[in-house]
């Protein structure tokens, strides 16, 4: 699977699956903002890639948001993508599905420091079980 291979390579190269560290090493800026019900988004202006994260979200949610937006930064770098909201987990939009798949592969990648378990993903991170199983049972 293309996304899984890409994530494996990324984790190996950076020696971590921490999305904040990977973004930093890739020169992608992370900013925390007041975003209301929006969890985060990715933008590119000129040559500057920025991941925007809701400063009021719980830390676990911010980690998932960072993974998702990092997926956009690497897979869809020229798009200013849609705002990530809780219901984006169920989005049928190809770009959003790819970012969710990337995020889950990164969170669960065994090559780095494991920062989340399946149980945490569904209970703490609010990621739908359907989304997790879809990506692990293919
Ligand atoms: Zn997205």
UniProtKB/TrEMBL annotation:
Coiled coil: none annotated. Pfam families: Peptidase_M78. Residues 23-109 form the IrrE N-terminal-like domain. InterPro entries: IrrE_HExxH, Rad_response_metalloprotease. This is ImmA/IrrE family metallo-endopeptidase.
């Amino acid at each position: 699977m293309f996304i899984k291979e890409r994530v494996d390579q990324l984790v190996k190269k950076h020696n971590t699956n921490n999305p904040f560290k990977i973004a930093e090493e890739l020169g992608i800026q992370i900013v925390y903002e007041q975003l209301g019900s929006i969890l985060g988004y990715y933008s590119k202006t000129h040559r500057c890639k920025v991941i925007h994260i809701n400063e009021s979200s719980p830390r676990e949610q911010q980690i998932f948001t960072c993974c998702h937006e990092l997926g956009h930064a690497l897979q869809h770098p020229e798009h200013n993508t849609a705002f990530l909201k809780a219901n984006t987990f169920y989005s049928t939009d190809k770009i959003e599905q790819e970012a969710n798949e990337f995020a889950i592969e990164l969170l669960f990648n065994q090559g780095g420091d494991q920062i989340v378990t399946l149980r945490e993903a569904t209970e703490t991170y609010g990621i739908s079980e359907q989304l997790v199983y879809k990506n692990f049972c293919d």
